[in-house]
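Thread: quick sanity check before group meeting

JM: Hey all, I'm pulling together slides for Thursday and realized we never actually wrote out the predicted structure for the chain we discussed last week. Dropping the sequence here so it's in one place. If anyone has concerns about the input, flag it before I start.
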Amino acid sequence: MKKIILLASALTLMIPTTQAAYKSGFYVGVNAGGSYDYNKVDETDVASVPPVSISRGKKIESGAFQGGLFLGYLFRIPESKLLLGLEHSSSFSSFSKEWRSVDANTIRYDNKLTRNYCGSFVLKFGGVLQEAWLVYGLLGVDISRFKLGTTFSPDIGSPQKGSCRKTLVGICYGLGLEREICEHWRLGFEFRCTQYCSKKMLTNYADVYSDEMDAKLGSIYAGMRLSYAF
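JM (edit): ok, ran it. Output follows.
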């Protein structure tokens, strides 16, 4: 993550400035970077009577690649250096994490949590420096698609597999720095954090066993972006 931030800063500083780079209008672009996903889960076997706790507060952490497309509109307040914007992005994430849990009866639960898609709608607010730089903050909503797969290995019988897909909504916020590299083209760096709402994910195995996971998920992203302004 530190290497990405240093590389982005060096690239933007090496680019020559131009005049009147930021005006009102639409733009499209691509982004790519790395994310650090941090998760905290509570697992419970809800099919047992009473329910059996499998684990509490287990930390699930992993790095991943994230990249995609974005579309937005910037509005420059007349006679000022202030800008407001609205942006939508759709990204692919390679996040995948596997772990094993064992309950009090030594029954194993092999879990795999993945996130393939994430999209966001954000408001941007910032200012123009020397008619070439844009410094901004962002605040918005992130929508991501997660999948939980679990293999349940009972003492008697063959292992059972179950899966669950959930769409999680979170609040995202961050900072960005952007600079025009030539007419219409802009290169920038963005850092954002996302905290998703707590979500219960239930996996069933052959309609007999059920494993419930209460997941508290979050993500930190840092990456480069290249855009074209119309």
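AS: nice. The first strand starts at residue 25 and ends at 45. The chain has one helix and nine strands.
JM: adding both to the slides.
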